[in-house]
Amino acid sequence: MTDSRNLLLQAERQCQQRGARFTPIRRRVLEMIAEASGALKAYDLLDRLAAEHASARPPTVYRALEFLIDQGLVHRIESLNAYVACPCPEHSHGFQLLICRLCGRVEELHLEDVNAQLADCAQQLGFRVERQTIELLGRCDACGDTGG
Questions:
Q1: What is the maximal distance between C-alpha atoms in the chain?
Q2: Closest CA to 100 of 140, 146, 135, 133
Q3: pLDDT digits (tens, 9 = 90+) for 66-98
Q4: In this structure, are residues 25 and 50 in contact, taking their beta carbons and an 8 Å threshold?
């Protein structure tokens, strides 16, 4: 779980520096994601948000998620179709995610040499990378060898 208070303060500062509007709904969506013990799906967020804001609808959540992803505050886990807070939004480059398939814990890595190697290989093949998602699915130490 990310320290949600520090993450929210950092998000506010970052949005202010970039001139991006960090609305109360965007803030609340980020807060819910940051407080979660694992990744959250959009409809989980919608259910939670609708309990607080009767007017919350799917487009509200998806627009907030799009903004948070664009600002580097949230990552979409492609394989789970879920979202997790970025613990270090100051890294604007590629990242790698370690995902425990048993408990849902997600850890973020920043192996720049991996990113550089992939970008170099892509460039040699005449391909320009616009977005990169590297997800490693397995088991964390806490889950160990349990669960088949």
A1: 52
A2: 140
A3: 999 999 999 999 999 999 998 877 765 678 999
A4: no
